[in-house]
């Protein structure tokens, strides 16, 4: 590995959160104040809208991912990815890697989660015979590689241009 690059895990480096869904029986929790992201809306791209949304009251009881979080589907269709550019709530089928700009550029982590290596690790960690599931502790054990921030900037610029 190059000098200054480190091999680590998602959980050793970042805070992660598993989403949740407010009770659907309480219609007052739903509205258009905050997007509520579900796995079908993760399309390996930026995300700023969702089919469903929460009211202000719903946002107070939901788990919220701040902008520049990496959202990863960990139940069913593993490894669908999104990078939210606005605050969003997200359901229990999704784990979020919360941003920490002292350690990594959000877009660098986003591109790394798109890699075959990342998705292969999710597949190998999955349990469940009918529906594959990667729980939060297993999700936190996924290995990633972090170069120094200047190198991350360089790599992201190349990938941005390619995409």
Overview of this structure, please?
The structure is a single chain. The protein has 163 residues and is of the alpha+beta class. It has helices at 10-13, 56-61, 106-113, 116-125, 136-140, 149-162, and strands at residues 6-9, 16-18, 30-37, 45-47, 52-54, 64-65, 70-73, 81-84, 88-90, 94-97, 143-146. A 5-stranded mixed β-sheet has the order 2-10-7-8-4. The longest helix is centred in the C-terminal third of the chain and has 14 residues, at 149-162. The chain is globular and about 55 Å long. The chain starts with 5 loop residues before the first strand and ends with a helix.
The Rg value, from CA coordinates, equals 16 Å
Biggest sheet statistics:
5 strands, mixed
Low-confidence stretches: none
Strand residues, percent: 25-35%
Element order, helices and strands? EHEEEEHEEEEEHHHEH
Helix coverage percent? 25-40%
- Oligomer description: single chain
Structural class: alpha+beta
- Basic shape: globular
């Amino acid at each position: 590995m190059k000098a200054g690059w480190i091999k680590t895990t998602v959980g050793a480096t970042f805070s992660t959160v598993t989403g949740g869904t407010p009770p659907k029986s309480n219609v007052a929790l739903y509205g258009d104040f905050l997007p509520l992201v579900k796995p079908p809306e993760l399309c390996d791209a930026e995300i700023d809208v969702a089919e469903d949304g929460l009211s202000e009251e719903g946002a107070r009881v939901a788990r919220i991912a701040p902008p520049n979080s990496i959202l990863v589907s960990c139940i069913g269709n593993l490894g669908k990815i999104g990078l939210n550019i606005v605050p969003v709530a997200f359901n229990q089928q999704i784990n979020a890697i919360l941003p920490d700009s002292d350690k990594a550029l959000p877009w660098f982590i986003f591109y790394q989660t798109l890699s075959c290596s990342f998705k292969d690790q999710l597949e190998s960690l999955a349990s469940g015979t009918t529906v594959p599931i990667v729980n939060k502790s297993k999700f936190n054990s996924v290995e990633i590689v972090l170069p120094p921030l200047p190198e991350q900037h360089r790599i992201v610029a190349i990938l941005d241009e390619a995409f």
